[in-house]
Amino acid sequence: MFDNLSNKLFFRLYQTANTLQKVGAQALDSEQVTTQQWSVLGALSRQSVQNGMSVSELCEYLKLSRQNMTGVLNRLEDRGVIARSIDPNDQRSRLICMTEKGAELWASIAPLINGFYEEALIGFSEEDRISFAHYLNKLLNAMHKMDRTNT
């Protein structure tokens, strides 16, 4: 019926993803930040995107649907932590940028996120973490090739 080991791996991955959503949200509950908002702020905080990212770029980078992304961006914009502006290279497109208030929020949640990472990865050596990242990237790349929506 199923390759038992593969079934266990994917079931454990599914459980881990669901637990990440739940426990990650608990880690930032005091700041009223969801894991999806955390991921958007993290993406926008990178030095390489100081001028912003398009919604499409954010969706691709974070592997979120446009529908989910729209809701997350609306809530972040309502809080004043992101702003949308017209892309100077494409008047039809909008760039999403982190505001000063967003940078302050990111700075305040960074220690909570780091604490979450350390607690979640307790017992993982540096070598374990490197190997784990390698295998997650390998799986993500294989699944990306399977995605029929990619062109």
Walk me through this protein's architecture.
With about 150 residues, the chain is mainly alpha-helical. It folds into 2 domains: about 25-120, Winged helix-like DNA-binding domain superfamily/Winged helix DNA-binding domain (Arc Repressor Mutant, subunit A, Orthogonal Bundle), CATH 1.10.10.10; about 125-150. It has helices at about 5-25, 35-45, 55-60, 65-80, 100-120, 125-145, and strands at about 55, 80-85, 90-100. A 3-stranded antiparallel β-sheet has the order 1-3-2. The model has no long low-confidence stretch (mean pLDDT about 95).
Topology:
Layout (H helix, E strand, L loop, with lengths): L3 H24 L7 H10 L8 E2 H8 L3 H13 L3 E6 L2 E9 L1 H21 L5 H21 L5
Antiparallel strand pairs: 1-3, 2-3
Provide the structure class. Answer: mainly alpha
CATH class of the largest domain: Mainly Alpha
Low-confidence stretches: none
Mean pLDDT: 93
The CATH architecture name of the largest domain reads: Orthogonal Bundle
Strand residue content: 5-15%
DSSP helix fraction: 55-70%
CA-atom Rg in angstroms? 17 Å
Cα(first) to Cα(last) distance is 32 Å
Task: Describe the main β-sheet briefly.
Answer: 3 strands, antiparallel
Per DSSP E runs of 2 or more residues, the count of β-strands stands at 3
The CATH topology of the largest domain turns out to be Arc Repressor Mutant, subunit A
Query: Could you give the order of strands across the largest sheet?
Result: 1-3-2
Q: What is the number of independent domains?
A: 2
Principal-axis shape:
globular
Q: Which series of helices and strands comes N to C? A: HHEHHEEHH
CATH superfamily of the largest domain: Winged helix-like DNA-binding domain superfamily/Winged helix DNA-binding domain
**Discrete helix count:** 6
